[in-house]
Amino acid sequence: MNAKYHHFNTLRKPVVTEKSYQATGESNQYTFRIAPDATKVQVKAAIEAIFEVKVEKVQVVNMPSKEKRRGAHTGTRSGYRKAIIRLAEGQSLEVAEEA
Q: Quick check: 65 and 82 in contact, CB under 8 A?
C-alpha cells in the first residue's frame, strides 16, 4: 500500500466551524475529522507528509453520538473522532483559510 494513500485515509476532512476558525487565527490550530482508529502519531505524520509543515502538537477527541428526533421517530447521529493540530510558529495551511 502506498504511504500517501494511507495518509489520506487517516485524515477525513477539515472541520469548518466558527470555533475552529477562531482557533486558527488565535493559536495557529487546525481541526480535522480523522479515522476512528487513527493515533496521534499517525495524524502528525499525515499532516506533515501531505501539507509539508511542522506539527507542534496533536490533540485527539472522541465526539459522542447524539440522539436526534423528528416527530415521533428517534434516531442517533453517529459519533466521530477529531484531531486538533497546532502548527509551529510561522506555518499555515491553505485548506482551512478564510476566503
A: no
Amino acid at 10: T
pLDDT by residue for the chain (99 residues), tens digit each? 566 668 888 999 998 888 888 888 788 899 999 999 999 999 999 999 999 999 999 999 999 999 999 999 999 999 999 999 999 998 888 775 554
- pTM score, whole prediction: 0.83
